[in-house]
């Protein structure tokens, strides 16, 4: 096997210098994880466990020397003989991106710990491991483009996901959620796709809040192509995040794999719209399995784009919470006693706060002709003294008026009398 100049030497140095004095990964470790991010597709339990047990540098050396377990070598295949790690790092640098690895202090270790715990529950036998598209495996590294710190944005974040073929209702709700959450200091995380994803990102940006798009391709690529301006704005204040190195294509299976990151990085997942079978539903169920809160926006029962939302709400084992706005979301995933949602405002009227006797007297008052207090007492079923006691109160509230014939309901003022 032909050695790539510099790679093997870097790996040798990395055994002694895994982490630099500034709290970031050493050059060899970073290059090793860059190589690993291209060597195997994310989502494999066996591959992640191999890297964790051997360490990134030793894992690269063993893979390149053909000394890795057969199951792991099969996942890498012909890529073991290739090395684009240095080119990937330089390409990332040219587009303003960087590689964040578990050895960095920027690594979002706390949010992603749920993936580590879930992977630990998987069996030892690779034959019984789940498929990559549904496996709860932590990433070996993350390519990040943007000025913000990944750990800081992930610390107080919410995923907002939904249908690509969204309705006007869904896009309006998603944009409002993104905007209101951004105003409350929450980071909106989504997938950068058409429909609900894009609406949520744009809502956050409209609030001058950072937002995170987790991509199924390289952070230097725009997919869908129509979102070039949107991705540029996200990268200016927020982050574009991907497990795949720069230049990686958006293959279909990668969208299913990346959904676990959207669920894991955030405190909870909000599903705005979802068809009966959708990726948004799958993301919500993965969030629940990772111990994250699932929230659902209800929609019209006649809308095919809300069928999936209603099914999530009907699934009692999922524990989904119905939300109608950012206040509900913040209450569901925020700190106890600090992010409580205010009760919805209720319209008030002049009858509010009236005693039982006052209400009965008011109901006994005729509309047109006035009547005596004695007549009101008979209709209301109370004493005349009670009627005489409450009539001034009702009059001050402009609910009744006294005429020559007696008491009656007060007439509403006309436009000309105002």
How would you describe what is shown here?
The structure is a single chain. The protein is an alpha/beta fold and 418 residues long. 44% of the residues lie in helices and 10% in strands. Helix 2 (27-39) packs across helix 6, helix 9 (168-183) crosses helix 15 and helix 17 crosses helix 18 (384-396). 46% of the residues are buried. Pfam families: DNA_processg_A. One of its GO terms (biological process) is DNA-mediated transformation. Residues 1-27 are annotated as: Disordered. Belongs to the DprA/Smf family.
* Second rung of CATH, namely the architecture of the largest domain: 3-Layer(aba) Sandwich
- Fraction of helical residues: 40-55%
> Which sequence of strands runs across the widest sheet?
1-2-6-5-4-3-7-8-9
**Measured distance between first and last alpha carbons:** 94 Å
Strand content: 5-15%
Beta-strand segment tally: 11
- Content-based structural category: alpha/beta
Number of spatially distinct domains: 3
Largest sheet: 9 strands, mixed
What is the name of the CATH class of the largest domain? Alpha Beta
- Poorly predicted regions are 1-5, 414-418
- What series of H and E elements makes up the topology? HHHHHHEHEHEHEHEHEHEHEHEHHHHEE
Question: What's the number of helices?
Answer: 18
| Overall mean confidence score, pLDDT | 91
Give the overall shape, derived from the CA principal axes. Answer: elongated
Summarize this structure briefly:
With 418 residues, this protein is α/β, with parallel strands linked by helices. 44% of the residues lie in helices and 10% in strands. A nine-stranded mixed sheet has the order 1-2-6-5-4-3-7-8-9, with helices on both faces.
């Amino acid at each position: 096997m032909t050695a790539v100049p510099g790679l093997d030497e870097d790996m040798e140095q990395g055994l002694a210098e895994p982490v630099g004095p500034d709290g970031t990964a050493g050059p060899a470790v970073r290059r090793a994880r860059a190589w690993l991010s291209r060597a195997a597709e994310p989502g494999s339990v066996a591959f992640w466990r191999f890297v964790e047990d051997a360490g990134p540098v030793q894992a690269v050396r063993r893979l390149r020397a053909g000394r890795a377990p057969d199951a792991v070598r099969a996942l890498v295949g012909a890529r073991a003989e290739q090395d684009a790690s240095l080119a990937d790092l330089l390409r990332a640098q040219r587009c303003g991106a960087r590689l964040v690895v578990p050895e960095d202090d920027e690594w979002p270790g706390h949010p992603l710990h749920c993936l580590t715990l879930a992977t630990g529950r998987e069996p030892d036998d690779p034959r019984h491991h789940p498929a990559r598209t549904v496996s709860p495996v932590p990433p070996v590294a993350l390519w990040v483009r943007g000025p913000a710190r990944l750990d800081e944005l992930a610390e107080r974040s919410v995923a907002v996901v939904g249908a690509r073929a969204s309705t006007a209702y869904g896009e309006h709700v998603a944009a409002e959620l993104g905007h209101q959450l951004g105003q409350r200091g929450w980071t909106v995380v989504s997938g950068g796709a058409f429909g609900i994803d894009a609406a949520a990102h744009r809502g956050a940006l409209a609030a001058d809040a950072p937002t995170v798009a987790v991509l199924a391709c390289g952070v230097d690529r725009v997919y869908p192509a129509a979102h070039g301006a949107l991705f540029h704005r996200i990268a200016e204040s927020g982050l574009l995040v991907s497990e795949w190195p720069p230049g990686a294509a958006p293959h279909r299976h990668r969208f299913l794999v990346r959904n676990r990151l959207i669920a894991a990085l955030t405190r909870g997942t909000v599903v705005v719209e979802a068809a009966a079978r959708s990726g948004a539903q799958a993301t919500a169920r993965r969030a629940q399995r990772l111990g994250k809160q699932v929230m659902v926006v209800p929609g019209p029962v006649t809308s095919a784009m809300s069928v999936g939302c209603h099914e999530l709400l009907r699934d009692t084992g999922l524990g989904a919470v119905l939300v109608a706005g950012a206040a509900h979301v913040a209450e569901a995933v925020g700190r106890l006693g600090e992010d409580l949602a205010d009760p919805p405002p209720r319209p008030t009227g002049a009858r509010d706060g009236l005693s039982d006797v006052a209400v009965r007297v008011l109901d006994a008052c005729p509309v047109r002709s006035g009547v005596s207090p004695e007549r009101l007492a008979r209709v209301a079923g109370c004493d005349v003294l009670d009627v005489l006691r409450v009539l001034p109160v009702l009059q001050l509230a402009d609910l009744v008026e006294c005429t020559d014939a007696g008491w009656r309901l007060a007439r509403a003022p006309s436009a000309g009398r105002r």
